[in-house]
């Protein structure tokens, strides 16, 4: 740490990307919730064509992408703001709407705490109940912004929109941010309809997971026009050309090739449904997942030991030091998951 660093940043803890470094490229990567499938050929084609125009700045309004997405979602283009991944959108939200503090579950996406610390936002956490659900009844946010990942990460649990609506109704002076990074894998209703009924809701989504564009960095939020303009003003102050031309083109191609992604999502979900009981037969407790990953712990073997043993066999999963018994396992291809199950079987037999 240099002597020039601002004092307010000296105690921050950055997001841990150590498990994502290049030296793990020859591993089966079941640790970062990426799609195991390549982007659609149309997304690649559009991105390649856009490369010839990189001497010009990209469209700061993402007009073509915004028009197509708004048509698909049934909203106005002015209700959508794009970010360099959904993490940038979250950064805008913490910048703009957390003056009175924020709230998020005690077990959820770790980036919320990192952003709160970075922006000097006073935060508090709400404990999940015994079913790993956010207890929404009688939650008094006292004007704080709440961040609700739905489905939640790393648990994978889905919260019905009616429960989120209860939170919104009970807290009209608080902004409710619903982070739907994994909603495409849920096979259940989005909270998107709530933005038409209430003025204190923002929906955040990403192209990284279901649309195979993690490397392109493309996310967005949908809300009412007033809030969208606030967010757009923050974006245009900090990074007006935040989405490069190739990413915009790839995003548009992915939307125009929607059937390709629907097929991939269906395969990931069907694979998830096969892997869960197989893990349970090996002695794992596995939470019901509405995402492209499973959250599991073994009855006899620590999460850290399973993580290390799989890493030795060139399979990466995600272990959380704060949740020592648990591991998060991304759903890969059927072949990758069969390899995972074989290796886990050998590890469990050896540990026994």
Provide tags for this entry.
single chain; 352 residues; alpha/beta; Aspartate Aminotransferase, domain 1; Aspartate Aminotransferase, domain 2; 2 domains; seven-stranded mixed β-sheet; four-stranded antiparallel β-sheet; 13 strands
Describe the overall structure:
- Helix 3 packs across helix 4, helix 3 (86-97) packs across helix 6 (225-238) and helix 8 runs parallel beside helix 10.
- This protein folds into two domains: 17-37 and 259-351, Aspartate Aminotransferase, domain 1 (Alpha-Beta Complex); 41-256, 3-Layer(aba) Sandwich (Aspartate Aminotransferase, domain 2).
- It has helices at 41-50, 63-73, 86-97, 111-118, 161-170, 225-238, 245-256, 258-281, 303-312, 334-351, and strands at 28-29, 80-83, 102-105, 123-126, 145-149, 176-179, 201-206, 219-223, 284-286, 293-298, 315-316, 318-319, 326-330.
- The longest helix has 24 residues, at 258-281.
- It is an alpha/beta fold and 352 residues long.
- The radius of gyration is 20 Å and the shape is globular.
- The mean pLDDT is 95.
- 37% of the residues lie in helices and 15% in strands.
- The chain is built from ten helices and 13 strands.
- Helix 4 (111-118) links the parallel strand 3 and strand 4.
- The strands form three sheets. Strands 2-8-7-6-5-3-4 form a seven-stranded mixed beta sheet, sandwiched between helices. Strands 9-10-13-12 form a four-stranded antiparallel beta sheet, covered by helices on one side. A two-stranded parallel sheet has the order 1-11.
